[in-house]
Amino acid sequence: MEKENLSVVLHSQGDLRLVLLQMHSVGICGSDVHYWQNGRIGDFVVKKPMVLGHEAAGRVVKVGSAVKNLKEGDRVAVEPGVPREMDEFFKSGNYNLSPTIFFCATPPDDGNLCRFYKHSANFCYKLPDNVTYEEGALIEPLSVGIHACRRAGVTLGSSVLICGAGPIGLVCLLVAKAMGASQVVITDLSADRLVMAKELGADFPLTVKREDGPEELAKRVEGLLGAQPHITIECTGVESSVQTAIYATRPGGVVVLVGLGAAMTTVPLLNAALREVDIRGVFRYCNTWPMAIAMLASKKVNVAPLVTHRFPLEQAVQAFETTRQGHGVKIMLKCDKTDQNP
After folding, report:
1. pTM exceeds 0.70
2. Tally of domains within the chain
3. What is the dihedral sign for C-alpha 80, 81, 86, 89?
4. Does residue 288 register a pLDDT over 80?
């Protein structure tokens, strides 16, 4: 869609608080690949052509007449979830749970993997000069880590097990450490991903095999830490990994479920109940962009190493195929022909 066509929308009734963005960097998420390959995630079904992409940063090129917080030329990170109504979830600060929320690249809502994109100005956050566009795009996955660690109650001295060292497991690692976790064990099937996890601050990278039993793995985690972890953040959604998370967590501890797996999963619920292990869900995030920007600007968190591949927008299919095959960690698409810098 051409810039001129989009800019007209900004002057139409109801669109006074929108901004038009020249997109710069957009990361590819596993959900993007899943929609591409399967056409659905759970109850969200692609019924018509849909623009993908929700990990994004860009530059403001036009503002609606009611926009006060941004101006042309501002570099911004885009929060992809925008509440459509002031319902009970919005009022309580849990707008991510609103059933009617707009969310980029979730049917039927289009995403922002494109040249130009319009978005609510209230959900575009100005980037400090020392935060790059790519770091701005990575605020989206970083926000998942922030929300997960908040839900888990990570604090000074916490011992944490993270199941899965993919992009989300790695951001959970970064945030847990920034929030004061003293020791972090992180597991994965891939030795390469655990090498990066070690570089990012993991105390105990633990290689697992598909045939490993959940209770056996739980014992190995306890052996590494000298005690069971206070908190487990499960980032794979794999049934055996969820079972490991419950068995591994100490009595009175917390298991947070971040990874999306099968609709029905068999878990040792009685084990969790009798040991008062809390099991908490995570759905996206809310109220995380300001904290994420502060973390990046202060250099308390470094997400730059997560970007392992970059492609121009014209090579989007190759970029998606690279992600599908599991190469690297985070693949970034560059949407601004005039600026290919990070």
Report:
1. yes
2. 2
3. negative
4. yes
